[in-house]
Amino acid sequence: MLDIARIRKEPETVCAALAKRGAQVDFAPLLKDDQLRRDLIARSEAIKAERNRINKDIPRLKKEGGDVSGLLEQMKKSGEEVKSLDDELRAVDARMQEFLVGLPNIPADDVQPGGKENNQVVSSWGSKPDFADFTPKNHVDLCTSLKLIDYERGVKMAGSGFWLYTGLGARLEWAMLNYFIQEHIKDGYTFMLPPHLLIYESGYTAGQFPKFEEDVFRLQEEGGMRFLLPTAETALINLYRDEILEEADLPRRLFAYTPCYRREAGAYRASERGMIRGHQFNKIEMFGFTRPEDSAAMLGELIGKASRLVEGLGLHYQLTKLAAGDCSASMATTYDIEVWMPSMNEYKEISSVSNAHDYQARRGSIRYRRAEDKKIDFVHTLNGSGMATSRLLPAIVEQYQQADGSVIVPKVLRDMVGADILTPES
RNA sequence: GGAGGAAUACCCAAGUGGUGAAGGGGCUCCCCUGCUAAGGGAGUAGGCCGGGAAACCGACGCGAGAGUUCAAAUCUCUCUUCCUCCGCCA
After folding, report:
1. For residues A327 and A107, what is the distance between their CA atoms, to the nearest angstrom?
2. Can you spell out the DSSP letters for A272-299?
3. From CA A92, how far away is CA A86, in angstroms rounded?
4. Which residues contact A326 (CB under 8 A, 6 or more apart)?
5. Could you read off the pLDDT of A235-260 as tens digits, one per residue?
6. Which of A340, A266, A333 shows the shortest CA–CA distance to A297?
7. Which residues numbered 330-349 in chain A sit less than 7 A from strand B, measured from CB?
8. CB of A269 under 7 A from strand B?
9. Complex ipTM above 0.85?
10. Which of A4, A314, A376, A396 has the most crowded Cβ, counting Cβ within 10 A?
11. CA A15, CA A24: separation in Å to the nearest integer?
12. In angstroms, how far is the first alpha carbon of chain A from the final one?
């Protein structure tokens, strides 16, 4: 949610910023409603103030035996006036709300305009594995032959877009989750296990609703809906919804493990099978609440953490700064970590680290009281995958595969997996 | 799923239609005392919205929303959350 005061003050600047992400917005109807709204409030409140004054007098007059019937008549009339003004006000409010809720976040100043084509590779780590001596297999073949993932039986149980980790595959997946959890705890982050089913308002605060309701699995219930979270971010952003934190409480550094459930309507490309567009995948999510002046530093911190985790696994990756149009609607800045996928000859996103500034905080009314002057202001919120293990497992088997079809287990996972190398026989 | 009960400030809590939502604890400040104590006094109802450069003024505000009324913490309805009991529990 954008600040109406800022739009009122500098509509052209906001308009130009939104244009960076390809959003063409005309603020004229909004600003007209804004003026109308304030007029309605002024008129309604003037009548209410008068009514309050008279109401204070009535009991006194009655006690003194005066005649109040004329006053009562007048009060009844002004009551009706107030009611009609307030009805109009509600309609204007709803119209403005609808307009504002549909607007995406303002991209940060240093974010490039344009779409995907303007994404910039910031850095890269490691190098592409050398497969000169043999033809590397793709992760679907590897995971199948090594019996790490059972794609067919996953579909049998749950339908298209689901798979099943089996044996060493489950252990490898779980080892990664454990590894990340341990690293986050070492860094002083607080471990959270949130509910997986959330109410509508939580999706609204995250910026998911109302625009992307079709993208989640929904359960219709009497008296409302619940949905399966598409990422732990959707839960964690709501931790302090409608709360006022003390400045001393900030920054908050959290992480959570949840599966992520997404509809991902439409078919995936064959090469993406088993990695992208699954309806359910595992992810550790990092999350931060900060003072506005600290969010840039925390963004750097989160990028650093995500990078170190991929490096710990020894995977070749690049860090990309997204152009405005490629950032999701709620985010002002996003950096992606993209891991090398030999079979696809592409770098694929495995972590996305973003700063939402006050966009989500405004939607969810998440604020803090400054220690010095007791003023209340919106916090900044940040999130980053740290990491999506279900996308890392394919990268691991592809990058670590050997000529004989076996896969070497990354050092940091060997104890937890209980194996140094995965072979078709193991 | 059923039957009851509850929701007022940081905490406890009074308040069954009428001008400023009692009181206590805690907290902040001051006085007295003089050193891990005790006493006295003052302050302490949030947040949003509108106006204003500000001081401030106004509107709203007793879980949320609607209604009755000239007037609602108080009466009515709907909902939410919590508590007690019963049932269910792969």
Report:
1. 8
2. GTTTSS-SEEEEEEEEEEE-GGGHHHHH
3. 10
4. A115, A116, A118, A119, A334
5. 999 999 988 888 888 899 999 999 99
6. A333
7. none
8. no
9. no
10. A396
11. 7
12. 53
